[in-house]
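Colleagues,

Please find the record for the two-part complex below.
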Amino acid sequence: MSLLQVDGLSISFGGIQALNGVGVNVEKEEILAVIGPNGSGKTSMFNCITGVYHPNSGNVLFRGESLIGLSPDSIARKGVARTFQNLRLFMHMTVLNNLMLGRHVQFKKNPLSAFLRLRREELKHRKVVEEIIDFLDLHPYRHSLVADCPYGVQKRVEMGRALALEPEVLLLDEPISGLTSEEKEETAYRITEIRGRYKTTILIVEHDLKIASRLADRMIALDYGKKVAEGSPEEVQKAPEVIKAYMGVD
Amino acid sequence: MDLIESYKEELQLVRKPWSRMWVAALLLFLLIMPWITQEYIVYIATIIFIYSIGSLGQNLLIGYTGQISFGQAAFLAIGAFTFGHCSRFGIPWPIGLIAAGLAAGIFGLIVGIPSLRLKGPYLAIATLGFGIAVYQIFANSDTLSGGRMGLIINKIDPVFGLDRSIFNYYFNLIIAILFTLLTYNIISSYMGRAFIAIRDNDIAAEVIGVNLMRYKLLSFAISSFYTGIQGGLYGLLMGYLEPNMFTFMEAVTLFVAVIIGGLASAAGSIMGAAFVVLVPQFFSGFKEMVPVVYGTAILLILIFEPLGLNGIWLKIRLYFRNWPFR
């Protein structure tokens, strides 16, 4: 059985059918790239999986359990983490605290420890967070406010925050958009490294087809809320529907 | 040089030597103050301590969690009258005080429920409605408010042969310090982080696993608990209670204290509390000007120093830390 099964997912906003019966199976420890032109429903699909949107019909099964109707926080607790296309960080907190918030689901949350300043849990999770800081090379920014960090760093912080959840499935929404070419290379390397280290299954939305096809084991293409192609990156990029979606027809 | 050798060291409440020094100096000053000043100033300081508790709680809600509430006068009244009735039945004051906080906290939970749906100004209006409704209930119910005579509260007898005013000073100082420590503990724990996350970006907070409902309600409950304690202590200091002590103006006063002191700052809350207590004292000759001063102060603060009095304090500290560079 696949780790994540998306089946017939549909959602519409007024007259716009953002997703129309999209289905895909994601296997364990796989990197699946989702491509498609702007407005084709890639982010809507992520939003449906993580509970931010409630789809009109269809089902999302994670380890055989349905995620439909669950609140985003309980989905996060089950082990699905994501990043956002337009950064959604906690701007007035330090980088460290942003990452510590990623540990929120793993915390033993005893109010008394908060009131009485018992810090055992805090120290325990700080160790994990420091490993992530190490991995993402965030040392110089540990105590600076996220709002003061450059964009590339903010992007890394968001990925680190999702990683801190120790998710089984990680959904990355355009992780390399807006980065310099070196940063793109670094991020691409880190994404494969995440799978290697943490055995994470990764779904990635990306416009940069060169990097996406290099990273992905499999690829699906969306257009107008429908899945138009699925297969290896080469197959998908050669599929006539995908070329039509990107180039139009003459 | 600022070297930290362990994570534990970094989590200390007051870490840097300079901060330790001025915190110690401040505490020492607060300890000896009643012996070196006049009774009147001691009394004002006592009121500042009581207001600090309320504004700390209000800052947890407005400054940290980002939920605007104008219902604070209601929690104040609920806390105060709960304490008053407990005292009337001869229940000892520590239990009465906790009951005051808990009663206000429970109502805070109830008032927090709209916050799950409403945001910003809409939530402010909903809580405002609650504040006014509770005032009307107390004003119109003789059983609750103790009728025209008000509710008489038995004061605590001073211990160690202290003067009554000095005893009140120390009593409220200790409680205010406890609540200040509690606030610092909360905001540096997982709970405080969740509060700030909700304020900064509620969708992201939810997606990384913060239960919005639980933490919004928790924030309302904790802040109302603080306010209820403030009400109880105020009643205990005054020795009597009447509904007119808890008009909408009280909610505004706490709100002003938070904004002037500095949003999301525990130290600022205390400075803000001092501001709202001292301004009416300075302008005691013409009381009708107090709201004008509040209004002007808020305008000036929002334009020139959005971080409030705490922002000014931070800048002073930064200046000295970087001295002689600038």
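The first strand of chain B starts at residue 151 and ends at 152.

Comments are welcome before we finalize the supplementary table.
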